[in-house]
Design goal:
The structure holds two protein chains of two kinds. Chain A has a single domain (45-243), classed as Glutaredoxin (3-Layer(aba) Sandwich), CATH 3.40.30. Helices cover 48% and strands 12% of the residues of chain A. Chain A is built from seven helices and six strands. In chain A, helix 3 runs antiparallel to helix 4 (138-150) and helix 3 (119-133) crosses helix 6. By secondary structure, chain B is mostly helical. Helix content of chain B is 75%, strand content 0%. Chain B has one domain (8-169). In chain B, helix 4 packs across helix 6 and helix 7 runs antiparallel to helix 10. The chains are: A alpha+beta, B mainly alpha.
């Protein structure tokens, strides 16, 4: 080995420093705190028994926004999915105030259980909570929905179980646990089947992860697709294009 | 009298020289650093390829947003251990790249038969695309969660494979005598 090919103290220090910087940078990005955006509560909710032009069955699904909105956003989500929480806390509040509350967009909340073992039971909890409050206090569903995402810990999927979702339901104002339990018992299988039906729509649209979105212009029968927790600007561009379709 | 190092398997004896090789010149150190950052970016972005492709085709300037978002997503899905394994994987890939360059240059200078000796080095560098990399690219973080220890076992396997091939190569500037 010639003199140029020797391990020098300078290079060793540079390599050590760069490694520490690199690791520190990754740790900083990983531990980034959640957004300080105020929690979004939609202004209007409604129910529908229709199947949309895109083939999504709306019966029993939480529908957020104006019934006559030009664009439907089919939002496939999983309460165990950290990326969905990122969308809910960082992007949805602005999408909500700029597009949903203005009457341009209607958000359809659809389960896509894909992260952990309790993803499907969590989806059934959600549907049953909506079923029990949709006609009387739909905001209670949104409170439950937000509390469920807030329950996600810093890492792992072990947090999601019967006890956790029962506790979430018990402490959500306006939701009666007994009514939700009764729904889960009597309608659990039917809800699972219905979830699969809309899941097939997502899969045929080649959505392979959560959160997954189809942006569908109901008048023009034109659609766009987004997958993942994109920044607000990406959502805004996509929504504007579909609105103008 | 045999020392502990002598008793160790051949690939393990060659490992210190292999890991220290990027420190033997400024160019190699920079190459290892650049490849490490690139490898980390590819590994993290490949955990959710559909999102990455959409993000970058709409606005390539969102690259840093994608890396930051998926780093956080990876941590939230597989914890500190999983993230540490990804970082280690990227560092070893950076080192392996300097080996691959050295071995390729050596092979060009010498006879074609030396190419056989180059294979482990190329395997080491190419291994960045096996294990955690490719399997991540086939699906997304959620799919990795279905694997034993949420994919960490697979990541560990990839790292051990990289270490094995790096150790086999040892210092790529010297020829091993068998």
């Amino acid at each position: 080995m010639d003199s140029k090919s020797k391990i020098t103290r300078r290079r060793a220090i540079a390599a050590g420093g760069a490694t520490v910087l690199f690791g520190g940078g990754v740790a900083y990005l990983a531990s980034g705190s959640e957004s300080d955006e105020p929690e979004y509560v939609p202004e209007t909710f409604h129910t529908s028994e229709e199947t949309t032009g895109f083939g999504v069955e709306l019966a029993g699904r939480p529908l957020v926004g104006d019934r006559e909105a030009t664009v439907d956003v089919y939002y496939w989500t999983d309460y165990l999915c950290p990326f969905c929480k990122k969308f809910e806390t960082e992007t949805l509040p602005t999408v909500g105030s700029e597009y949903i509350d203005t009457g341009d967009v209607r958000l359809v909340v659809l389960p896509y259980p894909n992260i952990g073992e309790y993803s499907m039971p969590a989806a059934v909890w959600s549907r049953c909570v909506w079923r029990t409050v949709a006609s009387t206090d739909p905001e209670a569903f949104w409170r439950w929905h937000g509390t469920a995402f807030d329950a996600q810990p810093d890492s792992g999927h072990d947090w999601a179980d019967e006890a956790t979702f029962r506790e979430i339901t018990e402490r959500t104002d306006g939701v009666a646990v007994s009514a939700v339990d009764s729904c889960r018992e009597s309608r659990g299988d039917a809800i699972r089947d219905a979830i699969e039906t809309n899941l097939d729509v997502a899969k045929s649209a080649e959505i392979s992860g959560t959160p997954g979105f189809i942006l569908y212009n109901r008048d023009a029968d034109a659609a766009g697709k987004l997958v993942g927790a994109h920044p607000y600007d990406t959502f805004s561009d996509a929504l504007d294009r579909v609105l103008e379709a | 009298m045999s020392t502990t190092r002598d008793a160790a398997p051949g690939w393990l004896r060659g490992l210190p020289d292999a890991l220290g090789y990027p420190l033997t010149s400024d160019g190699r150190l920079v190459t290892a650093g650049v490849v490490t950052v690139l490898a980390y970016s590819v590994l993290v972005l490949s955990t959710f390829p559909q999102f990455t492709i959409q993000l970058l085709t709409r606005n390539p300037a969102d690259l840093l947003y994608g890396i930051a978002a998926l780093t956080r997503e990876t941590y939230l899905s597989v914890g500190w251990l999983g993230l540490l394994l990804v970082v280690t994987y990227a560092l070893l890939t950076g080192i392996a790249a300097t080996h691959a360059i050295a071995l390729f240059r050596r092979a060009r200078r010498t006879s074609a038969s030396t190419m056989l000796g180059v294979v482990p080095g190329f395997l080491a560098a190419g291994c960045a695309s096996c294990g955690a990399g490719v399997l991540g690219a086939l699906g997304f973080v959620g799919a990795m969660a279905a694997l034993p220890f949420e994919g960490n076992l697979l990541r560990l396997g990839g790292i051990l494979l990289l270490l094995f091939f790096l150790g086999r190569t040892g210092d790529p500037q010297t020829c091993s005598i068998t």
